[in-house]
């Protein structure tokens, strides 16, 4: 018998995760005011940027794209069922001290965020949700199930894992419906030993406040490296955008608003300065940018692009101090009274598309538990070499974070 957690996230879209048995696999409009950023609503440390650096280090010179909000929500739900040092590591990994009251603040902040995202929006589509698919043959701790339902507004479904194919179809149909078909076949390789699958999804879809004209898109060079140049469809628009030149990090930052309360930030480092930007990026840096932003008339060149990322987080999160939950030292007795449960895998998948009309993105995180075993003449800003992207909503939440190395 095993416990499997499936976490799902989607931005245009984000998705993610699962509970499992031991396995051996290793017009020139007024630009809106810039938002005040937070890496993840409940956390206080630079979780999003620490995780970004860990992912980028593991795959240098590759595209990076993920949802900090999806992953932090998964970890917060895990914290509900974790005990002793396992819980402390998760909380500290999210940037919270283990002092009394910190976990309560985490869950309350997550609850408030879920309620906020549940409110209908006129201009953008954005929702975040959770679900538990539970085997009726295995008893989960009532306090855990009730807390996930109350704090994380999770749906619950009885699921017959004795028929793995049917259980897999039930989960995948649910995820596909919640993400409007952007995430399909999220649950894979389920077997009859699983007792629960937890799904977290986030869905986001938005149009630019001022769209790019398709007629202005032209094939142009994109310098992947100093030696490698590829042709990409380059969009162009002249308009007022928020802009800041950060000389200390040798980068230019352009804020492009969506309709509604979302903004995409495109960050272009100087040639050969991507490493400097990555090392210096944190919440303090973002707040400095927001304070110093000024409206500028820009001739903006931005490539149409589609990138995706897939990450084995059980190999990455230990770099942030979250170790025990993936080992025989895991204490997840708050989920079930079986003491021999650990997380064997946590997989996160994400995809984003940017074009003339707006942005579409999707992501998924799968976690598997097992038994132990300024106004002036237009300035040209051309994103024709590797750059970073942040997608922010409602002045608080970094939904997605990534690096475009090869569009």
Automatic annotation (TrEMBL):
* Signal peptide range: 1-18
The upper taxonomy is: Eukaryota, Metazoa, Chordata, Craniata, Vertebrata
Gene Ontology biological process terms in this record: seminal clot liquefaction; spermatogenesis
Q: Name one GO cellular component term.
A: protein C inhibitor-coagulation factor XI complex
Domain Serpin intervals = 49-407
Q: Which PROSITE patterns match?
A: SERPIN
Q: What is this protein called?
A: Serpin family A member 5
Q: Which UniProt keywords apply?
A: Signal
Q: Mind telling me which SUPFAM superfamilies this protein's record contains?
A: Serpins
Named from the GO MF annotations, one term is: phosphatidylcholine binding
* Family, as annotated: Belongs to the serpin family.
